[in-house]
Specification:
This protein has five helices and 16 strands. With 310 residues, the chain is mainly β. The chain has a single domain, classed as Acyl-CoA thioesterase, double hotdog domain (Porin, Beta Barrel), CATH 2.40.160.210. The protein is globular, with a radius of gyration of 19 Å. The termini are far apart.
């Protein structure tokens, strides 16, 4: 194992124990959005080698918890910073061992294999000394080759988002709902991220939407394409959500992301379909697109779960 990464972010005035970072308490730093919404400054605030979650990282599943997307993005960031920049991330597998608390988080990185053409890097996410999630990244060295168009990814086939209203993702997910959900939803990553839904309906297990993180993932940093796609890939379960009752839904225990290239631009599209069995387990499958066409896919194992009200 080795420590975090070189180039640690600058300290932040927030510290562990601050009431604004207590479960259910939110930071006050915010920025206005184009549509008049007030957004957090970033998803995470840097504090030396720690990352302090803002309201923009929170989960709808319970107070004091994080949505699965922000931990996935942090782990992707750790692997990317530890990797040879000449290698391309082709697979990222994220295991969400337990609910991630809204507490200061650190990342621990280990190189499992280092080679000229292939590397495997592992990153662990730590909260209060406990490992809460882990990611394994497989990276390969690209090389030029001529291919027949028959084996190349197809051209863009998903309706583009231009002209589609941008909504908080939680509102876009409710498009097509036959009734009000009845139970208020806690704010968080799902209400910070913007979405332009182009197909599918709430609770049907299918949906397609363009998604954008409208604030920096880590304050003071430019969000990389890998971090962006890792954090938004978790929304496949939201777009393909299966709703068996007013208070029950499905949560995912993992995220497995495959990429044959990195996405271009801020907007990433998920084309999602989900299925489940009556024993409460299932699978969400999403094809990932950017404006130039498909870039990869993400799979998520899901299980039924009761949602807490706000």
């Amino acid at each position: 194992m080795r420590g975090n990464f070189s180039g640690r972010p600058a300290p932040c005035p927030f510290r562990a124990g601050c009431p604004l970072l207590a479960p259910g308490g939110f930071d006050t730093t915010a920025v206005p959005a184009e549509n008049g919404r007030v957004l957090p400054e970033a998803i995470f605030l840097p504090d030396g080698d720690r990352f302090l979650p803002t309201e923009g990282a929170a989960s709808p599943w319970g107070p004091g918890l994080l949505h699965g997307g922000p931990p996935a993005g942090l782990l992707a960031r750790a692997i990317e910073r530890a990797a040879d920049p000449e290698l391309h991330p082709v697979r990222l597998t994220i295991d969400l061992f337990r609910p991630v608390p809204r507490q200061p988080l650190t990342c621990r990185v280990a190189h499992l294999r280092t080679g000229k053409r292939i590397a495997v890097i592992e990153a662990a996410l730590i909260a209060d000394g406990v490992e809460v999630a882990r990611a394994t990244g497989l990276l390969l060295r690209p090389s030029s080759i001529r291919l027949s168009p028959d084996v190349m990814p197809p051209p863009p086939r998903i309706e583009h988002h231009v002209g589609v209203p941008a909504l908080p993702l939680v509102e876009a997910l409710r498009i097509g709902a036959r009734e009000d959900p009845g139970v208020p939803m806690l704010p968080g990553f799902h209400s910070t991220v913007e979405a332009r839904r182009v197909s599918g309906g709430a609770g049907t297990g299918k949906g397609t939407a363009w998604i954008r993180i409208p604030v920096p993932f880590v304050a003071g940093e430019e969000t990389s394409p890998l971090v962006r796609v890792a954090a938004t890939a978790d929304f496949g379960n939201g777009l393909g959500h299966i709703r068996p009752s007013e208070t029950a839904g499905f949560i995912n225990a993992d995220i497995t992301l495959y990429l044959h290239r990195l996405p271009a631009g801020e907007w990433i599209c998920l084309e999602t379909a989900a299925s489940a069995q009556e024993h409460g387990l299932g699978l969400v499958e999403s094809i990932i697109h950017d404006p130039e066409g498909p870039v990869g896919r993400v799979d998520q194992a899901i299980m039924v779960n009761q949602r807490h009200s706000g």
